[in-house]
């Protein structure tokens, strides 16, 4: 199950119009992704940290989420110092550790964590349904929004189908081993899952046609942009421009 | 209003998924306004296929379908009548695809061109009718099986159809949900066809039952559905008569 542990809450961030949060998070993330210098990146990390604190979400859960992503970033720390050529700081036989690689890995770490924290505090604090509606209000193409919503709705159904199949092979004594039988069984499981998903898609589409679906997605939510939302978007834009300015200054 | 208005007329319908085993063979069927028909027939006899042919989700290999007196030939013909004929699918997960209950129930009315306000009003009314008043903002995939079924019935009823096609509406439901559906059907002044294996349910909700055999529909003339109660000693031990 995909849970939405951050969506329920009543912090200052939760009260901001979701459209503004999505827009602000997008603008901010792009700006941070474009930065290359340490100074703006450290400021960005601080801003992101503050936004997480403001959103009042459980810090433990946030750290858990960050940890998952940082496991992948760890791979950069292993690969980049050995391969990104520059001045080497340490040599062991044929293996060289390059300073440029270490710096790059550090920058990637700062950037990813800053972006991730802002996404958690701005976007993970709304339900998926609200996210879909704000995207459609922000004039993201309807087809994309629809794809996102349908994926979200049916990923659980497909997961249930998967568990049904897994249960049915388990009760018949299947134990995975490194044998051809095991590979064949897994191939069947995947194949069956694909077939069931595709048949499900046909049935869902038929049900939608029966209810007069003509490719249009309607959203019932009305968003209200209040003064708070405008202040919020101004502050975030200000911070973003500040970070970009620092990047320009320090990058010479 | 004319009581005997013909709603569905199927003549000479044949259909097969594969050439060797036709599901429906030269089937004729007529359905009038006010009819409440139960279909009770073995698995694989083509009941669901029949519904899908009526809705234009499948195309017959031969034969013709007429709905509300109009011949149904193109997808557009069917698209025009779909809001007047509500099909309840066997699997509620097929029918519910919106994140929240209210959106799902409002989906049909919105597609019919109702305004947002009207759609929400109709949806709330429909949910109330089925005893789901506080369900509006519930997340559809987190509902229980019975709740899902009732909500999918609501999504069909909110289009205010003139005919309902219910495909095994009671399967897998508990007694409470079953009686809600039975009550809803008997309270509404609407024509419907129900596919079910539940004799008691059909007894309570329909005025006649038909069966399907060899790809055709037969009226159950001689056999009348009834529940048989009798008492004798050792009645609680499994036995045959």
Describe this structure in words.
Chain A is mainly alpha-helical. Helices cover 71% and strands 4% of the residues of chain A. In chain A, a hairpin with a 2-residue loop joins strand 1 and strand 2. Chain B folds into two domains: 1-84 and 163-223, Rossmann fold (3-Layer(aba) Sandwich), CATH 3.40.50.300; 92-160, no CATH class. In chain B, 32% of the residues lie in helices and 24% in strands. Chain B is built from eight helices and ten strands. The radius of gyration of chain B is 19 Å and the shape is globular. The model of chain B has no long low-confidence stretch (mean pLDDT 88). The A-B interface holds A 127-129, 132, 149-150, 152-154, 156-157, 200, 203-204, 206-214, 216, 218-220 and B 52, 55, 57, 79, 82-83, 86-87, 89, 91, 93-100, 102-103, 106-108, 110-112, 116, 119-120, 139-141, 155-156, 159.
**Average pLDDT of chain A, to the nearest integer?**
88
Walk across the major sheet of chain A and give the strand order. Answer: 1-2
Walk across the major sheet of chain B and give the strand order.
Answer: 6-7-8-3-9-10
Shape assignment of chain B: globular
Q: Quick one: biggest sheet of chain A?
A: 2 strands, antiparallel
Percent of sequence in beta strands of chain A = under 5%
- What is the number of strand segments of chain B? 10
Supply the helix-strand structural class of chain B: alpha/beta
* Structural class assignment of chain A: mainly alpha
CATH-derived architecture of the largest domain in chain B: 3-Layer(aba) Sandwich
Which shape of chain A, going by the Cα principal axes? Answer: flat
Compute the number of helices of chain A.
8
């Amino acid at each position: 199950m995909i849970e939405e542990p951050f969506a329920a809450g009543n912090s200052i961030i939760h009260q901001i119009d979701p459209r503004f949060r999505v827009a602000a998070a997008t603008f901010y993330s792009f700006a941070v992704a474009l930065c290359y210098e340490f100074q703006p990146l450290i400021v960005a990390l601080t801003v992101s940290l503050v936004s997480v604190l403001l959103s009042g979400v459980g810090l433990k859960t946030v750290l858990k989420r960050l940890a998952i992503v940082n496991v992948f970033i760890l791979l950069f720390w292993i690969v980049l110092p050995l391969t990104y050529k520059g001045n080497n700081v340490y040599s062991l036989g044929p293996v060289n550790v390059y300073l440029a690689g270490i710096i790059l890995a550090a920058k990637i770490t700062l950037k990813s964590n800053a972006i991730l924290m802002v996404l958690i505090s701005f976007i993970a604090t709304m339900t998926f349904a609200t996210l879909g509606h704000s995207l459609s209000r922000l004039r993201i193409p309807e087809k994309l929004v629809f794809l996102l919503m349908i994926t979200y709705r049916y990923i659980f159904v497909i997961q249930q189908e998967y568990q049904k199949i897994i249960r049915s092979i388990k009760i018949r004594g299947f134990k995975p081993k490194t044998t051809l039988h095991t590979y064949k069984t897994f191939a069947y499981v995947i194949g069956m899952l694909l077939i069931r998903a595709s048949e499900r898609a046909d049935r869902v589409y038929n049900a939608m046609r029966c209810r007069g679906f003509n490719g249009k997605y309607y959203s019932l939510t009305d968003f209200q942009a209040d003064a708070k939302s405008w202040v919020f978007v101004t502050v975030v834009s200000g911070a973003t421009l500040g970070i970009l300015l620092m990047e320009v200054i320090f990058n010479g | 209003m004319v009581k005997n208005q013909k709603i569905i007329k199927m003549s000479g319908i044949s259909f097969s998924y594969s050439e060797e085993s036709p599901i429906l063979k030269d089937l004729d069927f007529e359905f009038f306004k006010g009819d409440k028909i139960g279909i009770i027939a073995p698995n694989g006899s083509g009941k669901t296929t029949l519904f899908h042919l009526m809705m234009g989700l499948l195309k017959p290999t031969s034969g013709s379908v007429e709905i509300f007196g109009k011949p149904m030939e193109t997808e557009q013909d069917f698209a025009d009548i779909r809001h007047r004929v509500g099909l309840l699918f066997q699997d509620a997960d097929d029918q519910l695809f919106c994140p929240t209950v209210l959106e799902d129930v409002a989906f049909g009315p919105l597609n019919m061109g109702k305004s947002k306000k009207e759609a929400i009003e109709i949806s709330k009314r429909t949910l109330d009718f089925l005893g789901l008043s506080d369900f509006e903002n519930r997340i559809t995939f987190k509902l229980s099986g019975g709740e899902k079924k009732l909500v999918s019935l609501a999504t069909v009823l909110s289009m205010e159809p003139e005919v309902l096609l219910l495909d095994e509406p009671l399967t897998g439901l508990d007694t409470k949900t079953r009686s809600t559906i039975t009550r809803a059907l008997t309270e509404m002044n609407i024509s419907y066809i129900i596919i079910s294996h539940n004799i008691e349910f059909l007894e309570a909700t329909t005025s006649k039952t038909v069966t399907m055999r060899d790809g055709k529909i037969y009226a159950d003339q001689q056999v009348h559905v009834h529940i048989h109660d009798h008492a004798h000693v050792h009645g609680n031990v499994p036995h045959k008569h």
